[in-house]
Amino acid sequence: MNNLIGVLFTDQKSFNELELHFDFDLLKPSYKLKYIFGKTIIDISKDYTQLKFDSLSVRIHAFLHNLMLWKYRGSTLSFKLRAYAIIGTKKQHTNWTSVFNYDRQRLSFVKRIIVRTFGKSFGILATRVVLEGIFRLKKVMLRNQFSKFDLILLSYGGRPSIQQDFLIWLGKQEQFATIAFQENWDNLTSKTVLYQHPDFFATWGMQSSNHLKLIQKYNGIIVEIGNLKIEKFYKARSQTKSLQKNVLDEKSNTKDILIIGTSWGVYDLKLINSCVKVLNSDKINSRFRIVYRPHPYGRLKDKIFNEINSFDKLVVDYPVKGESTDYRISQILNSTFVVSLYSTTILEASILNKICIIPSFLDVDSNYPIQNFAFESDYFKDISVLEGVYNPTSIEEFLSILECYDNFENYKISNNLKILKHICAQTNTSNQILSVINLASSLSKKSIS
């Protein structure tokens, strides 16, 4: 009889990503698959079960994660920036304002006082006791509904998920295995501290594995599987002979500057304005075209979008649902420069040996210097040393970089592959996923912890 695997999805984004990039039919010969949805039923056509919690339980769970973020705020730079923006005192909030716009999550004055007061060992312990009491009650209410699973897969994006923490806790009670799969590059250092630890954790590469052990204090089984999307970028790097040539559109005789929008969208207009200003300089001989790609889950206001669309020689490339990775690869390959404010696209473009610009010259309301994040953040500092990654702190410096490469029709960028593989392993990720599932399944119904 095939083992029963549960796959938890609590948000549409994670579901879409995995459905697009992983062929679940690979599991069918050996496993029976059942989806687990949270509050929202994401796809009614699937064989699914629903796991919902009342609003009070969700608030207590979120409260615990805020307590842990405050207590361990010194563990990473991103934790500190997030904690001071959301929970910190007025002085801490002012001194540590950053480009990442965490202010939108800032708690009320009373909640900040409570979290800072109880964000210590005793407060965390007391809240855990309460939450685990809720978990025990939930287990009784479910009447062994989840005890039939042999294995549960979790898409870990760093966001607090009471369903995820409950299933990991329940797995230890019912002796079924749990595997967390790292969604994004920064997940283990920038969002939350792990509360419940899954039996297995599948990471992008050695960098994230180190973050798990040193920052998250994880002591389970770690498997480095790479990433389904990034795997295709490695293939394109090895297959494309013209990666190191300056890209020139033969029809229009223009070169593309690809600007990647941010998820919060606050500075996208400023970034486009800065690029337009540079391209109007007399020192730039070539005809450049700006291609602006908004973040697929961005929150740009209509007014800003209208301003962006009013620029001449600007192409807005809206992400399309179900868009292939091959399209992204082609877009980056056809660009001369990639401009992005600390996004995963910097990693993708670096694998393809493109010139990447971190726009630290932006005029932003930030007391934490933008340029410092490249060298002080736990996940980004490794990529900052690559040959093709630049971090200009002024418009003039940005102009000089463009001018330098503009004067050479052919140039070579050869980013260190060892560093890139340290960040994200170069593997057959689908095979690695199957391997870790088979391993975890073989240990199912046994005490792993």
Structural descriptors:
449 residues, alpha/beta, Rossmann fold, 2 domains, 7-stranded parallel beta sheet, 6-stranded parallel beta sheet, 18 helices, 14% strand, globular
Structural summary, described in words:
The protein folds into two domains: 3-51 and 146-227 and 426-442, Glycogen Phosphorylase B (Rossmann fold, 3-Layer(aba) Sandwich); 232-423, Rossmann fold (3-Layer(aba) Sandwich). It has 449 residues and is α/β, with parallel strands linked by helices. It is built from 18 helices and 13 strands. Strands 3-2-1-4-5-6-7 form a seven-stranded parallel β-sheet, sandwiched between helices. The protein has a six-stranded parallel β-sheet with strand order 10-9-8-11-12-13, with helices on both faces. The model is unreliable at 242-251 (pLDDT under 50). It is globular and about 75 Å long.
Short description:
The protein has 449 residues and is α/β, with parallel strands linked by helices. The chain is 42% helix and 14% strand.
| Estimated structural class | alpha/beta
- Report the oligomer: single chain
The CATH architecture name of the largest domain reads 3-Layer(aba) Sandwich
CATH superfamily of the largest domain: Glycogen Phosphorylase B
Characterize the overall form: globular
Number of helices: 18
* Rounded mean pLDDT score: 89
User: How many beta-strand runs?
Assistant: 13
* Low-confidence segments: 242-251
Largest sheet: 7 strands, parallel
**Rg from alpha-carbon coordinates:** 23 Å
Strand content: 5-15%
CATH topology of the largest domain: Rossmann fold
Number of domains: 2
Distance between the termini: 26 Å
CATH class of the largest domain: Alpha Beta
Helix content: 40-55%
Strand order of the largest sheet: 3-2-1-4-5-6-7
